[in-house]
Amino acid sequence: TVAPAAPTLSGVLAADNSFEVYLNGVKVATGSDWKTATALTDLATRSGTNVLAVRAVDAGGVAGLIADLTVGGVRVATSAGWKVAKSPPAGWEKLDYSDAGWTAATEYGGYGASPWGRAVRGLAADSTAKWIWTADARNDNEAFFRVTFTV
């Protein structure tokens, strides 16, 4: 018999201003226009623990992130359940990296919150995803985000 494949990860993601996305340590996407959500389509997950890691860079302020994703019908949208750091060590994007010392992301607001409003094309108007960033939100023009999920 053949074991069924693990569900895939799909959805959209945007960061003010640019980003790199890693799934289990492998770079799977980049973006440089915060006004256009980047589609992540049918990314292969593995059975068990997975990690999605994002480096966001803002050109002149605070690096914010919003993502509305699903894995096998389960939503993995940005929220305070994601972790964030300002300057993690090498390997921060890998599955075996421990983010135990990272803090919970701070939710700024849902899609439509100021200063972005509803300017991100490709994000559903009824999305429950939140804009997230570091707790102090001061001059954090680079931030690193992680969420761990089980398949």
End-to-end separation: 20 Å
Rg over C-alpha atoms, rounded to the nearest angstrom? 15 Å
Contiguous runs where pLDDT drops below 50 for at least 5 residues: none
Give, in order, the helices and strands. EEEEEEEEEEEE
Helix content: under 10%
% residues in beta strands: over 45%
Q: What's the number of extended β-strand segments? A: 12
Query: pLDDT average, as an integer?
Result: 88
Strand order of the largest sheet: 3-2-5-12-8-9
Shape label: globular
What's the total helix number?
Answer: 0
Main beta sheet, described?
6 strands, antiparallel
* Class from secondary-structure proportions: mainly beta
Structure characterization notes:
- The protein is mostly beta strands and 151 residues long.
- The chain has strands at residues 8-16, 18-23, 26-31, 38-44, 49-57, 64-71, 74-75, 83-85, 103-104, 106-110, 130-133, 142-150.
- The protein starts with 7 loop residues before the first strand and ends with a strand.
- The model has no long low-confidence stretch (mean pLDDT 88).
What does the secondary structure layout of this molecule look like, with pairings?
Elements: E1 8-16, E2 18-23, E3 26-31, E4 38-44, E5 49-57, E6 64-71, E7 74-75, E8 83-85, E9 103-104, E10 106-110, E11 130-133, E12 142-150
